[in-house]
Amino acid sequence: GIESDLEIYINRSLETGPTSHPPLEPTVGVNVITHGDTDRSHIDTSRVIKCIELVMEKNHAKLCRLFKGSLKTLADELLEAGIIPRHVQTNPTDDMIINCFLSGFVFKDDLEEIEEYCMKFFNAFY
Asked: Using CA atoms, how far apart are residues 85 and 4, in angstroms rounded to an integer?
């Protein structure tokens, strides 16, 4: 699914050694910079965000299918999580939800904030 594609790609990008996972398309050219160690403070968060944007773009059709039938319920959960504003929750569309999620990265400047924000988004689906 979408969540697993994103999680696998980000986790694989954070690895410093060889990986046995096959590359995901079309994000093959996007790698998170780790500078050869596992100290996460060196991770280029702008590249992580770009990776997330590419995975979301690649999976746009899957997301829209996932939203179908439960858009209002999902919008309610995303409003509660602080991902979307009330005007989007009142009259949600697939694209408005996705755009709000991606726009939220503007305020995220460290990896922990990015991870927490993504988990809020994914948890709204459960």
From this structure: 26
